[in-house]
Amino acid sequence: MLTELAARARARLDPAHWDFFAGGAGDERTLRANEEAFQRLRLLPRVLRATGPRDLRTTLFGTELSAPLLVAPTAFHRLAHPDGELATARGAAAAGTVLVVSMAATTPVEDIAAAGGPLWFQLYPQPDLEFTAAVVRRAERAGCRALVVTVDSPVFGRRERDRRNGFTDLPAGLVCEHLRDGTGRVRDIVMDADLGWERIDWLRGVTGLPIVLKGLLHPADALLAVEHGVSAVLVSNHGGRQLDGAVATVDALPAVVKAVGGQVPVLLDGGIRCGADILAALALGAGAVLVGRPVLWGLAAAGADGVRQVLDLLREDLDRALALAGARRPADLTGDLVAARC
Ligand code: FNR
């Protein structure tokens, strides 16, 4: 469904930048597994019961979304399109959903906020606690409504395509805007191998924003996350860009949902490419899903309009899938609608 947009994006992008966006870690087993796991699922639809209007709206932390579909945080949008994150924010706002702004964005969060639309902010906690707290305060002041803390990145995944292409630095003129410190100097982003649960506790003292823990797969970690007071967990393997060989996210989802036991919402990203994928994730217990690469394809192909197109297409496809599966609302979806894996 999104393949034509991906092809248009590819044609427009510098091949090294396409590889940066499309690629994963290692042999890209997990990257492929995310999509394949959805393709292996088969649905068991109900009939004659979903009469009346359908309603996809979903509320998370007090924000109403047009559907249980958000834009995942991804780095360097100005590599994809000159309008960068501003275009992504406009597209997400037009589609009625949240953009999760990346810590590695090439546009400052204050400018992205001015584009309108609800934002969350994704944080890679830095070893410098003062700097980390300052970034969180910046995101709060800009109006971000949740803090998404990425915890699957104690080191960088090994990205073979980037190594092959020699893609190590942003082109002149582009920087990670959230790595600027008080002096205007732009720091290097640090993947902190010393990040532990105590830092999550510390962050809860730094901000009153809901904290979403992004990048867990193991049910024991989901339980710990709840014990440490997070407001949601996000089942993610970073789109196959960190631990190659990690389980596909939709395969990890049921055990996490079981462990969390409804105490906080469970979100999922990785491999969502059509309405049936979203439907399956929701039926298996996700409260909402996020999409990464498809939004980048829309952005590269057609800027804000392209982002909106991708999100509208996925939302409309979910609406159709709901009708065909005999459901009116996301809340109607139950695990029995996922029949089998083939
Ligand atoms: C990402 N992802 C990511 N995650 C994060 O927490 N901070 C980041 O800066 C980035 N950057 C990033 C760049 C690119 C190019 C990609 C493809 C991904 C991971 C992202 O949030 C999400 O987990 C995956 O993209 C979801 O998988 P799909 O939808 O791309 O299959």
UniProtKB/TrEMBL annotation:
> What sections of the sequence does the record tag as coiled-coil?
none
The protein's GO terms of the molecular function aspect are: FMN binding; oxidoreductase activity
Q: Tell me what organism the protein belongs to.
A: Dactylosporangium aurantiacum
Residues bound to FMN are 73-75, 102, 122, 150, 214, 236, 269-273, 292-293
Residues forming the FMN hydroxy acid dehydrogenase domain are: 1-342
Q: Which residues bind glyoxylate?
A: 124, 159, 238, 241
Organism placement in taxonomy? Bacteria, Bacillati, Actinomycetota, Actinomycetes, Micromonosporales
- The catalytic site is made up of 238 (proton acceptor)
Q: Which cofactor does it need?
A: FMN
Keywords of this protein's UniProt record, alphabetized?
Flavoprotein, FMN, Oxidoreductase
Q: Report any Pfam family annotated for this entry.
A: FMN_dh
Protein name from the UniProt record: Alpha-hydroxy-acid oxidizing protein
